[in-house]
Amino acid sequence: MIRSVVLVLLSLVLIVCGGLACTSKSVEPPGPTAHGYTFSMRVSDTELWLGPRHMGASRPNATDVIVEVHDMQGRRVEGVPVSFHVTPSWVQNATVLPQHTVTQNGMAHAVFKPQTIGVASVIAQVNGQTQKKEIVVELHSYPASK
User: What's the pTM?
Assistant: First the structure.
């Protein structure tokens, strides 16, 4: 009896994990821009802490946002305008600076700095194409001294 219950449960787990529940989300990058460029976007840290800092704090309170632009041959492209912004609900609660820049050696950099907790979306735009990354901002606190 116990053996058959274990087999049924194991079978259910395998069925669920074989379906959508256990698959990783794969986000396809957008196709080429109007000028035939492709770009990728990444953030150095996807989890940030707000609040008092102390020795041993392991998460930063800001993160770098990096965009890399390539031509059709895969070479980095110089001088391509890139803009960075947050979703409208975060405009009053975070900064992304600079908001406008151009690629140097095919890369553009900005810094995202939140002022509140939540899940923020940072958006990069290159030639009308956009990509978005989510960043989790948590309140950092530590136990009071005894």
Answer: 0.73
